[in-house]
Amino acid sequence: MVARERSGGMAVRCARRIGVAASVAANLAFLAMYIHRRYFGGGRSDGGGGSGKEITTVEPSKGKPPVTPDSVVNLDQGDPTLYDEFWRLMGGRATITIPGWQTMSYFSDLGGFCWFVEPGFERQVRRLHRLVGNAIVDGYHLLVGTGSTQLFQAALFALSPAEDGEPMSVVSPAPYYSSYPSVTNFLNSGLYRWDGDANTTFAGDTCIELVCSPNNPDGGIRKAVTKSKSGKTIHDFAYYWPQYTPITEAADHDIMLFTVSKCTGHAGTRLGWALVKDMEVAQKMTKFIELNTIGVSKDSQLRAAKILKVVCDGYELSPTSKVNLLFHFAQRKMAERWSRLRAVVATSGIFSLPDKLSSYCMFAKEVVSANPPFAWLRCHKDGVEDFESFLRERKIITRGGSKFGVDERVVRISMLDTDEAFNVFLGRIASLK
């Protein structure tokens, strides 16, 4: 009897020890899993009653429908889906995991100049400009916006009104970006108003000139044309990247706008940034964004920071691996498309394009040709007065010249869409005589 009791007691103690050991092992496993997810990414689905199934991607948005030989080809928008191929090659390098408890506060950095700028995003933006050499960053305040359009509106707010209290005239040389008039006049502001072509409109001494370079839509290199002593400029550098144009200088203007969408192709991230020299102007722009949207998405900034880091790392950490070089990839794609389009236009007898521009590029360290993100295509066919409508009847959607302040025999065509869309477009253009 005593032996059985001793045996039973030993079994209980043994079971307890096994239970403790199992509990410790489970806790260690949970801790290891937490550390892995916290610092190396990963996550769980919340479907199936907490099944714990690992997920590595989110459900993709539908986007535009795929292009077939018979479908309508919409090249009206500059939707940069050309970059999809590059980022698929990068695999998970640009992937981030944001835990549910992170980025909950409105505030990013109360100690910084702009309280809603994520420090990591600012570091990568400044790093990128130093890598490419397209803009001076030292001595500039960096602001972030929901796309460069919001920053454009913030800049108009900061520079207005004129000293006499009258609305500022906003001008840009034609052909100008088609959204400038509509965005400027959208709110019917008493601070500023759209006054049209800077080459023909008398703007007096109270104008704001919008300088888009390379220019949207025609790819030309622009300088300010107004000579007013008290005039102000906003430089739109959305396309001043080496895949589109030679980098000839490090820009150092008072207000310079950039956007993630045309730099890396991530239009859906809806993020732009401004480099602003004057502190008071930067503070007013910050106030506009604060009142307009109470800051800018921190999630978008974190994603963009990772994307820009991958771009910079490709050049600084593994420059011999061509597959990692975003600007080289995009430049090759754009150059190939432009070569094919120019060949078709040359044999058409009814179309023309602006002359090819070449210059020494400080980034590439050689003479390179410009490959604008849009084709500014003119039609010389008799009887065609509205080129946009002419192409629409042939299932090609473009944006007509009247929206850019010029005649209707010219259209803007996006060169940034998918290979499938570009190939169908090129085939249809080649068939027109």
Please characterize this protein's 3D structure.
- This protein has 433 residues and is α/β, with parallel strands linked by helices.
- It folds into 2 domains: 73-91 and 323-430, Aspartate Aminotransferase, domain 1 (Alpha-Beta Complex); 119-315, 3-Layer(aba) Sandwich (Aspartate Aminotransferase, domain 2), CATH 3.40.640.
- 37% of the residues lie in helices and 15% in strands.
- It has 11 helices and 15 strands.
- The strands form 4 sheets. The protein has a 7-stranded mixed beta sheet.
- A hairpin with a 4-residue loop joins strand 10 and strand 11.
- Residues 1-6 and 34-53 have low confidence and may be disordered.
Topology, pairings included?
Elements: H1 2-40, E1 73-74, H2 84-89, H3 119-132, E2 141-145, H4 147-159, E3 168-172, H5 179-185, E4 192-197, E5 207-212, E6 232-236, E7 255-259, H6 260-264, E8 272-276, H7 279-293, H8 298-316, H9 326-348, E9 351-352, E10 358-361, E11 366-369, E12 374-379, H10 387-392, E13 396-397, E14 399-400, E15 410-414, H11 419-430
Parallel strand pairs: 1-13, 3-4, 3-5, 5-6, 6-7
Antiparallel strand pairs: 2-8, 7-8, 9-12, 10-11, 12-15, 14-15
Helix pairs in contact: 3-8, 4-7, 9-11
